[in-house]
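Action item from last week, closing it out:
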Amino acid sequence: MATLRYCHEKNANYIKMKVIRNKFFKLSLILVLIYGLSHGIWHYNLWHYFLFRHQPDNLQTLLFNNIHYFREVTQTPRRIVAHILKIDLRDEHLTFFITPNEKIVAVGSV
């Protein structure tokens, strides 16, 4: 009987210590994360980067014949950088390559 009581007390103490260690671990992890995030944001100027980051200039270039690239930047209502590719589909030298569907059977394989 004494052995069972000793084992029960030992298990109860072990469980209590495990719960305390688990709570301590969670608390310390939360504190480390809060400190790390706040230190990273302020020390490395990430907050400043997110608020005042540089926007690129507007751009227009001719990539190939009848294929134009435009970059349009707006500040209002929010910061947007739009990348636009304008392709003239009436060009007779322009061809498209499309991956065939699996259901299409090759000619002569029937």
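Closing note: The two ends are 84 Å apart (CA to CA).
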